[in-house]
Amino acid sequence: MHVATPSFPTPNEVLARNLRRIREARRLSQSELAGMLRAVGLRQWVGPTVAQVEGMTRKVSIDELFALSLLLRAPVVDLFADVSKHVRIAPDLLPVGSAFLRAESEEQIDRWRRWLDRALETTFSTRFMAFRFEAEEARLAEEAAARFGTTSADVKKTAARRWSRTFREERERRLAKGDAEGDLRVRRGHVTRELMTELEDVYARRRKRSGSRREES
């Protein structure tokens, strides 16, 4: 006997709708969002990739889910908001064709969301911080590259030669060694400007040497 499968949304369908909603609320184009994802290491993301996810023709990995949460400044649970009381999962798991999560009330849905929020925060906090650090690293390199007329890759190499660590790592090291009093954001800004000045000196010396070689030739 054939059992008809009700037409309930899948988690991927819910994610697709929320991704589009949140992206548009942030006034980001699909290409702009893809560029932000590439900046934190997800090189395979291009403009059409966002369209594929929003069009439900491409699934999202856990790594990508956390990157989207970070870059869109939206908790992961918000990407699954407004889930209906029935969500279709594992369509090939049961002989009848589908398995269903069934909520008897809005309170049950809220409990699922709270559980998901806690589970994700606990299980993936390290991964989330890694994405956060990568995004900050990329932002600092891009700012320095624009200031010194070079590339982000060159800034990263120059920082590694200058301090034997990345720009962000050196900034955090100096913050840890310095006076802990005062507003952290102000202190971080001060150290960032200090490091930019040091890199500026490095690039100035490099330009001077390059100019001298041209004169000699």
- Counting copies of identical and different chains, the oligomeric state is single chain
Radius of gyration: 24 Å
Structural category: mainly alpha
Strand order of the largest sheet: 1-2
What global shape is seen?
Answer: elongated
End-to-end CA span: 88 Å
Uncertain parts: 1-5, 90-104
Average pLDDT, rounded to a whole number, is 77
Helix content: 55-70%
Number of strands: 2
Count the helices. How many?
9
Structure characteristics:
217 residues, mainly alpha, elongated
Tell me briefly what this model is.
The protein is mainly alpha-helical and 217 residues long. It is built from 9 helices and 2 strands. 65% of the residues lie in helices and 4% in strands.
Task: Note down, in words, how this protein is organized.
The protein has nine helices and two strands. The chain is mostly helical and 217 residues long. It has a two-stranded antiparallel ribbon with strand order 1-2.
Topology at a glance:
Elements: H1 11-25, H2 30-39, H3 47-54, H4 62-71, E1 86-89, E2 99-102, H5 106-123, H6 125-148, H7 152-163, H8 167-177, H9 184-216
Antiparallel strand pairs: 1-2
Helix pairs in contact: 2-3, 4-6, 6-7, 8-9
